[in-house]
Amino acid sequence: MLRNYFHKMRGTTQSPPRVSFREIAWSWLGAFLGIAAVAWSDSFFLQGTDLVLIIGSFGASAVLIFGAIKSPLAQPRNLLGGHIISGLIGVAIYQIFSPYLWLAAALAVATAIAVMHATKTLHPPGGATALIAVIGGPKIHHLGFLYAFMPAGSGALIMLAVALLVNNLARERRYPEFWW
Amino acid sequence: MNENQPLPKLELTDADIYEAMKAVPGYLDITPGDFKEVYQLAFKQALQRLRGSVPARDIMTKEVIAVYRDTPLAEVAERMGRGGISGVPVLDADQKVVGVISEKDFLMHMGLEKSQNFMVLVANCLKTKKCLALPIRAQIAEGVMSAPAVTVREETPLAEVAQILTAHSINRAPVTDAQGRMVGIISRGDIVRATTHRTE
Fold it and tell me: Where are chain B's structural domains?
């Protein structure tokens, strides 16, 4: 039994093939435009306010919605659902467990994953969105539950719009695979 | 027909899958190993669906050697012998199946116990010199047939036919239309043939 346990760590198959140069170029362009749209909106509209539009987890979302566009994890349901649900969970857990930041951080990420699974909205960057709600500092904490919709929900929505526009320009790309 | 029967060998290698993945533009978020697993399960699922949906009509034998209620047993035996078959349906005047006669029915009416086989008969014959079929010489099909016959309908799915044959420990079942008239016969052999053909 122990042998089997360690045997499982050896892996069974190989890494998927490398994508073409054309694919790499489209991923680059999409990610550039997607993050640019969010970051530009943030600095143009929200400079000097208490609001934010960009958070670190969008970097991870860009990997999926521009780099792995066929992945179920990259579809609109997952992108929007994952960020909003994880945002709500992160804020709720921060507010309950804020005296113990380490515990809140762990609970937020773990619970976000569980709820994303249960709602079929698994989106890895959602884990970051939940974590940022806890460790993001006073500016994030001050937003309260708004955090789940702004920046999390609205940022994701902007990224989704760019993904739809840019991914479908490429002859060999098609996005999304499904909406809901 | 057993669900645990081994899958036909699927000659799909990780390398095949890897090459196929290269042919699809874009990053596929799955490993060749996982793809193979999904493929094999899907293939198994498709086989089960086919087994479930193929009706008896599609694999039955349509030219059936049959006898009537009043066919003399000598003729029944002759037809079975000539056809090389071990059982025949017995029909009434409307072509409805009223029973089945198998080798076993003959043996049982020739003085054998249920558990005995043909060799007991041979042994008796050799020892006593007085041959055995005499008691049934004058009879007709109706007298020895097993009735009612276990039959299946034309639209009964393959998997269900297999279950019926197994449950009754029989090798064949006449296939009937909605009015009970015989349209064919389905044997274990037909099922084996149909499934091996499909999985090849």
Answer: 14-53, 57-199
